[in-house]
Specification:
The structure is a single chain. It is built from 6 helices and 2 strands, in the order E-H-H-H-E-H-H-H. The protein is mostly helical and 139 residues long. It has one domain. A two-stranded parallel ribbon has the order 1-2. Helix 2 packs across helix 6. The longest helix has 18 residues. The radius of gyration is 16 Å and the shape is globular.
Length: 139
Amino acid sequence: MKIQGIASACCAILFACAPVVAADKVDLGQKEFNAGCAACHGSTGTGDAPFATLLKARVPDLTVLSKNNGGVFPAARVYEIIDGRQQVLAHGSREMPIWGQIYKGQGAPSYDDFPYSPEAFARGRILLLIDYLYRIQAK
């Protein structure tokens, strides 16, 4: 499966370097998805969660992102949608939470000799989600 967009090199490295998740290991991407996305997108990512019916816009099926993009996973576009801080006015208002701001706000402060970046923390969590979404694409 191909990856498209600015983040493609970063995601390709992430996918290539990520260890295979064993049964006794925690899948951090899935954990992020279940904590923040499954309420609307459903536990399988197909958009069939009960909460989805309360939203104005139809919740998309996240398992067909590649299929709907000519077989190429749109990593950069997915990043922008999750991050949400660069709103495209032509797309109208959004009901989805702006996870980039939420994650950045959850970032820890700096520690004495250990520089900490809330921005890097947010990017890491978003990349975990992108990795998980890549792995649940319909074959």
